[in-house]
Each structure stands twice: as C-alpha cells, then as structure tokens.
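Q: What would this complex look like in 3D?
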Amino acid sequence: GSRIFYERNFLMQCRSSPLAK
Amino acid sequence: PPRPPPKPGPGENPLQYNYGFWYSRKSQGNKSASYDQNLKLIGTFASVEQFWRHYCHIARPGDLTGHTDYHLFKEGIRPMWEDNANKNGGKWIIRLKKGLASRCWENLILAMLGEQFMVGEEICGAVISIRYSEDILSLWNRTASDGVTTSRIRDTLKRILNLPPNTIMEYKTHGDSLKDNSSF
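A: Here is my prediction, written as structure tokens for the whole assembly.
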C-alpha cells in the first residue's frame, strides 16, 4: 500500500494543534 | 502485561509506523547495571499529534547533562544491537559540536517520522547521545551490507541536518560494535 509521508513544515504546523496539547 | 499498541485518535494524522521513546542514563552509582537495565521506555505513539504530546514533555537533549541517551525506535524494535531487527544492521554516526544536539535531534526525528529517507522498512530508529565533550547523533538501519541504502541514508542525513561539510560521519555495523563492545 502507499506510504505516509510528511514534510517537516507540516509536522511543525501540527505542533500547535489543540490535539497535540 | 504489555500495554496495547497506541492508535491514532479521531482527527489525528497517523504515522507510517508506531514509535517508542526510550531513555538511558549511565548512573554514577551503579556502574555494573547492564545497558538493558539502564534502558527505560518513556512511551509509544501512533500519530503526529501524539508524538508532539510526548516530545513537548521531554527535556531537550541540549539541556541534559551527564552521560544520557534518547532513543526513538519503531515499535517492536528495542534500541539494542542484539534485537532481531538490528542484528544484521548498522548505524550512521554523526559527531556534533556542543550546542547542536537539540536542533539536529529534532530535524532527524521529524525526517524519520515523515518517512523522508525513502528506504522502505530499513530505518530502525535514531539515538542522540549526550556526552561531556561532544554529542553523537546516530541513525540505525536493518541491513549494513546494503550499500545503496546506507548511501541514500547518508545523503538524506546531510540534506536534513545541514551541517558543515567537515562534519565527521561514519558508518559502523552493530557486529563491529558487539565485537569491540563500543558504540562509537
């Protein structure tokens, strides 16, 4: 199946998500 | 009984693999404690958001003192040479001047979580080792004899860490580490 890739910028944006608190 | 593996929560971004954060510290008191006894699992996670929830509660490598290591490994792989996934493998070792550990560690693990190394199942985990005079970053892969994979990993490490060209990078097989009982 397809792999899950994330760029650094996207991962850094997720840091401020309420789900990451 | 082992805890059930974590799953991504509603609305969270799943990772390709689950990972575990480990911690080890060579205590001054009990020098005889084995590597295995010093290895503590901090927690496991399955999504980007769960990663940040762990990462934001763990001291940054640059703020640690003494002989301490952080390990971030795929779930099911212990950060030990002898683990099944590691026994034919090796690692790229990058020696860092003091002051670079936190930034390089963050860049490395974000690249690993985001599958930026493009080597399929080969990556096993990453380690940051805080020592007195320098810090050491390492990235473990499964097949030490696969030159194409180890070269591709090296090139990606250079790109994501953006270190000076004279930075020392070397590849060491875990077989050699076991032989001389030394990581670096």
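A: To summarize the key features: The interface with chain B takes residues 3-8, 10-12, 14-15, 17, 19-21 of chain A (CB under 8 Å). Chain A has a mean pLDDT of 94.
Q: Very helpful, thank you.
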